């Protein structure tokens, strides 16, 4: 995990829009005594973006992975993420994981890959998730990767890890724990099919205006809370309020 406390600076790969004008954190879960460090950029209060929403056909493809699926729902959330991005892990730990549970059967929540070059283990993690998806175990691998982020994604002193061998070994352990066929998993991890899927996700993200991670769309519009959002609790509330408003339409 990077010690950079200002990921909105040049070269971070995380733009003001991408960080939702609000929070990028080097996160430790509160239940284990961690501390949230917030970096935010001033901006206006949340408002409906101008212009048409991004086309649904661009944001969600037939082979896209879902955390939550409700075919009859009129609400679709799409997150472009980088598995080694500390902010993405913070979103997962403090928001996405509980949203997944609370909105089961109510919304569609799509996960798409957007690995950044600045994170050397982002692509191997995406490959592991996609290889698991080929065996119907995407959610299991997604959760294992994020629940064990500190084991593979960061060094003991809080830097972004570049230990590919260690990460891949751990991903194989998670695959085994999820009941995957390990031989097939190993064959699929770096297969043309898996790499093409990751590349297609990234290309679609760029076309949709994604510049960094996490970037979240709700019914085709990028979720951007205002500058009054200063905590994970407030971010969670803003996100759920938007979901509930869309569900009520």
Automatic annotation (TrEMBL):
Stated family: Belongs to the thioredoxin family. DsbA subfamily.
InterPro entries from the UniProt entry: Thioredoxin-like_fold, Thioredoxin-like_sf, Thioredoxin_domain
Keyword set, alphabetical order: Disulfide bond, Isomerase, Membrane, Oxidoreductase, Redox-active center, Signal, Transmembrane, Transmembrane helix
Listed SUPFAM superfamilies: Thioredoxin-like
Every Thioredoxin domain range: 39-248
A GO term for molecular function: oxidoreductase activity
Pfam families associated with the record: Thioredoxin_4
Segments passing through the bilayer: 12-38
PANTHER family assigned: DISULFIDE BOND FORMATION PROTEIN D, GLUTATHIONE S-TRANSFERASE KAPPA
KW Repeat (keyword) present: no
Keyword Repeat attached: no
Protein's name in the database: Protein-disulfide isomerase
